[in-house]
Design a protein that fits this description.
The protein is mainly beta. The chain is built from 1 helix and 6 strands, in the order E-E-H-E-E-E-E. Strands 2-1-3-4-5-6 form a 6-stranded antiparallel β-sheet, with helices on one face. The longest helix is centred in the middle third of the chain and has 13 residues. The radius of gyration is 15 Å and the shape is globular.
């Protein structure tokens, strides 16, 4: 096992810690808000409770796509007009607010409250 402090990611992306996640209208989740531990958080519950949807929402917020479907319109909760995902990433003074929404097939991104064309943190 490689000690965490000595390991560096060879990819172009830097690692950011998701500290808070707010979800509205995503798959089976009408509304959820989570404060996440910087090291690890556990998600558990009965079948069909939304555990995978919660993980997919975090992935969608960070990567801009789903790991389950190519059609983002299917992510909007049945009967909802839109989905909204908000998160806080980073530590201390370097925290940033990220958000995405999908309304009638149109996606918007926001970084620290300002419109953004892509999630480039």
């Amino acid at each position: 096992m490689i000690p965490r402090a000595s390991w560096s990611c060879p990819c172009a992306y830097r690692s950011l810690t998701l500290r808070h996640l707010a979800i509205e209208g995503f798959r089976c989740l009408s509304q959820a808000s989570l404060e996440l531990h910087p090291a690890r958080s556990y998600v558990f519950g009965p079948n069909a409770a939304g555990k995978t949807s919660l993980l997919e929402a975090a992935y969608f917020l960070g990567r801009g796509r789903s790991f389950r479907t190519r059609d983002a319109k299917t992510l909007v909760r049945w009967g909802a007009q839109q989905l909204i995902l908000r998160g806080t990433v980073g530590e201390g003074a370097e925290q940033q607010q990220v958000a995405t929404s999908l309304t009638q097939g149109r996606r918007e991104w926001r970084l620290n409250g300002e419109p953004s064309k892509a999630m480039a943190l």
